[in-house]
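Q: Here's a chain of 249 amino acids. Please give me its 3D structure as tokens.
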Amino acid sequence: MDAYTGFAAVYELFMDNIPYQEWAEYIQKILKHHGITDGLMLDLGCGTGSLTRIMSEKGYDMIGVDNAGEMLAVALEKERERPRNILYLLQDMCEFELYGTVNAVISICDCMNYVVEPEDLLQVFQLVNNYLEPKGIFIFDMNTLYKYKEILGATTIAENREEGSFIWENFYNEEEKINEYDLSIFIPEGELYRKYEEVHYQRAYTIEEVVELIERSGLKLLHIYDAFTFEKPKANSDRIYFVVQEKGK
């Protein structure tokens, strides 16, 4: 089943704990460190466009790519209400196409973990390298192997609000390194609730596996950070950031 179909309707309701503004400031610091203060930027896996819009407000010309039409519909509604001149494209990140090159590419909220086949992730990296300007920067985050094994594991997350409710069950397969998210979403319709069910899959990659794919793609690895810091990842880091650079087509 496609991810973020029924969930798109209540995504921002249940994701209101994500500090997008702080995340954007962190990304902007990394970009500024590498001399990118404006220009054209791609948000790969942009979802409902929350981060895309913040980066636009910070002075970047934004393109958003996502393969979930329902999520992009929310992003486009925001664009209609408060235009930022953002171009949204309904595309699979493994096959995305742009009209030209961009100064930077960003991908956050573990979008890369949704690419469960290493060869597909390699293809994403190759496409990014192809569409980056010379010395352009690609910043992406990933959930770590530690997070899937020790934090998510077989946990169940549930939340109940007047606007809707969800049950989020996790099942991690250590042999395949795949985490399955089973989502049950309940959205009120009058005195009754409509139930939506979705299944999401994410892959746990080791740092070594990601570095190998980066090198094979033609990109140049610059930094690996423990999330929202400029320190090296720790054994118990649950999210890490990769900063890579275009180094030739």
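Q: Can you summarize the key feature?
A: DSSP finds seven helices and eleven strands in the chain.
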